[in-house]
Design brief:
binds pyridoxal-5'-phosphate; 2 domains; Aspartate Aminotransferase, domain 1; Aspartate Aminotransferase, domain 2; alpha/beta; 396 residues; 13 helices
Length: 396
Amino acid sequence: MFRRVYLDNAATTPVDPRVLESLLPYLRDKFGNPSSIHFYGQGARSAIDKARHQVAEFIGSRPNEIVFTSGGTESNNLAIRGLFDANRRHGSHIVTTVVEHPAVGSVCESLTKEGAEVTVVPVGANGCADPGAIREAIREDTVLVTVMLVNNEMGAVQPVSEIGRIVRDLRSDGRKIWLHTDAVQAAGKIRVSVEDLGCDLLSLSGHKIYGPKGIGALYVKRGVRIAPQNIGGHQERERRGGTENVAFAAALGTACEIASTEMDENAERVERLRDRFESEILEAVPDIVINGIEGPRSPYISNIAFKGIEGEGLLINLDMSGVAVSTGSACSSGSIEPSHVIVALGTDDDVARGSVRFSFGKDNTEDDVDYVLGLVPKAVENLRRLSPRYQSASGA
Ligand SMILES: Cc1ncc(COP(=O)(O)O)c(C=O)c1O
């Protein structure tokens, strides 16, 4: 029987009903501007303050180290451009990895037009960067290292704590160098503690943790200087001008609080679902590779390469049966180039082209997995029958 199964939670998640409830009052009667000193303003101000506490608690920071932004992309821009602009006199070299989201990779690249030099460190077959390679890439003039915590395409967990130790050691030797991590896909999936990670800047996004799209946060460690990229009023302690998005900040606060309390239980359950899905797919479908399976992974993502077919073909096929998955990152879909992340694993072109991301969420059930398992083997078989690439490779 036809059903809808959403397995694209790394692209976005539905808004949790409790999150929705918490934001509505600020779109109705509590509509004040937090900068106003009257009753209405005070109501909005206290909502922002509460949300700031909730976000801070979620990542183990102080509330005044949280800057609300419009999402993960803006957080990354503010972290990277903001740190670079404010600390140019200390150097202009940036170290990053080849598997970053474009909201990091393209920002670093854009800075090369403004005098930055960027070293892009490769990853191993498991999708992880080697902290030793990051250390080797750091130069005298390196001001920023930016490495994501969980990869959005295959879920690889990067060794950010180890990199944090390297950066901290350099700083205790008097070096002016800082660490940013894009934790957009990590938040709510694995524990995120700025203390344990040893990072100076950390990006979050609301819509990946059952909050609305268009809200995010940047953690800026006390004492770290960033230049605002939104120039305007004095909001967010001079770090981001513009009237605060009160309702969505409140929503992000609620989403963080819910994620804190429910994360462990959800992760355990979802990991079991994901593991069953992978082991049954491996049994039912020949010539597949689970990308990044050898490394530490987020329990929520399974990226599978079906050799001999285009990932898009399977995506469309599954969509017609009610199942939502994706290929590459959502931001690059529509492009027929294979994903830069899967290519970075050193896989051959066939694997990169046939890769599909199944990203689970807290609402997925065993029945969802059964439904998808009932569709994928047949769909892949049909696509392969029509694939000259697969037919010639398998000698059929
Ligand atoms: C790792 C990562 N960073 C940043 C972003 C961008 O976040 P937002 O959509 O909130 O701008 C995404 C979204 O796909 C992501 O997966």
